[in-house]
Design a protein that fits this description.
Oligomer: single chain
CATH architecture of the largest domain: 3-Layer(aba) Sandwich
Low-confidence stretches: none
Largest sheet: 7 strands, mixed
Helix content: 25-40%
CATH superfamily of the largest domain: Type I PLP-dependent aspartate aminotransferase-like (Major domain)
Structural class: alpha/beta
Bound molecules: pyridoxal-5'-phosphate
Radius of gyration: 22 Å
Number of domains: 2
CATH class of the largest domain: Alpha Beta
Mean pLDDT: 96
Strand order of the largest sheet: 1-7-6-5-4-2-3
């Protein structure tokens, strides 16, 4: 398939803004090119517009070439760049499969692009035929969230592969929670699928929601297009510094991960014992849906004790469900105690 046909004409024709730091990077030691303040305070210089150090570390961790990586100010920015590269407002459409991450729909609204809905099946699996039936010549993007938020389950790789092969669209696979699973990332298969984009983030398993760093993996061609439209200095220096520091500490990362997964098992086991819990949806993530007879009562009671969970009971296929994030051992204990009292 020819991905260039899916890109907006104006974007294809764009010449990117060329920043001072684009033109001369390494060798100089006197920088009088960017109207910066010369007095050193750690952040007086513009940051590296291509974040080469962070990408090099990510490339090593993820086994994906730096040329296939773009970083964004959170996945939010990555997703927005994808819309702006592919979707002509008031003309093109995208497909989402609710219940899923709310940002796809919000960004469709912001970019004035039609959001076509092909719901997940009741068991939260992908409905290939449902998706296929919504695709037309103006369909540019199909969003697949795996593991899915809010249901927590991973989606079937065989169906995703069928979508990549048979539907003439970009398939955006949001792997925000992939680090909690032992699944192989789709980012390792970029060479097979020119229409594949994979999003990850440092916001969840890496514990860096506050620095806003989203990761996009795609073909060199797509990364080149997204680089043309991203703000030149979209990842600030403090974020780059902190990301490098934390990405270096793989031992801390895997220790934290082990604790969260261990706590998830305990939390699920304690909750399923409680008479007011109807069921727990099996999850590959650091959260899960728990179904209650009276979710509103549970939500309000927890809230009164200063414990906030997410009410997803109005979402498709999520009747009675609250979404619960696995917290620290102390937080989880508080939650269980509060639930026991209801
Ligand atoms: C939390 C989450 C993200 C992360 O977004 P950031 O902007 O990187 O913090 C992305 N996708 C899904 C499905 C999420 O749940």
């Amino acid at each position: 398939m020819d991905v260039s046909k899916l890109i907006r004409e104006n974007v294809k024709a764009l010449l990117p803004y060329s920043s001072a730091r684009d033109e001369f990077s390494s060798v100089a030691d006197v920088y009088l090119d960017a109207n910066e303040n010369p007095f050193e305070n750690g952040v007086n210089r513009y940051p590296d517009p291509y974040q080469n150090k962070v990408k090099s570390k990510l490339s090593q961790l993820k086994g994906v070439s730096e040329k296939n990586i773009l970083l964004g100010n959170g996945s939010d920015e990555v997703l927005d760049l994808i819309y702006r590269a592919f979707c002509e407002p008031l003309q093109d459409n995208i497909i989402t499969s609710p219940p899923t991450y709310g940002m796809y729909k919000v960004l469709a609204g912001i970019n004035n692009v039609e959001n076509r809905i092909a719901p997940l099946n009741k068991d939260f699996s992908l409905d290939f035929e449902g998706i296929k039936s919504k695709v037309d010549a103006q369909t540019k993007l199909i969003f697949v969230c795996s593991p899915n938020n809010p249901s927590g389950n991973s989606l079937d790789d065989a169906i995703i592969e069928k979508m990549l092969n048979e539907l003439n669209c970009i398939v955006v696979i949001d792997e925000a929670y992939i680090d909690f699973t032992n699944k192989k990332s789709w980012a390792t298969r970029l060479n097979e699928f020119p229409n594949l984009i994979v999003c990850q983030t440092l916001s969840k398993a890496w514990g860096l929601a506050g620095i806003r760093l989203g990761i996009c993996f795609a073909s060199e061609y797509i990364i080149g297009i997204l680089n043309k439209i991203k703000p030149p200095y979209n990842i600030n220096q403090l974020t780059q510094n902190k990301a490098l520091e934390v990405l270096e500490d793989e031992i801390q990362f895997s220790n934290n991960l082990k604790v969260i997964l261990f706590e998830k098992k305990n939390l699920e086991a304690s909750m399923i014992e409680l008479p007011l819990v109807i069921k727990i949806i099996p999850s590959d993530s650091n959260f899960f849906l728990a179904q209650f007879e009276n979710p509103k009562l549970v939500f309000d009671t927890l809230m009164n004790q200063g414990i906030v969970v997410r009410d997803r009971s109005k979402e498709l296929h999520c009747e009675g469900c609250l979404r619960i994030t696995v917290g620290s051992p102390e937080e989880n204990k508080k939650l269980i105690e509060a639930l026991r009292k209801i």
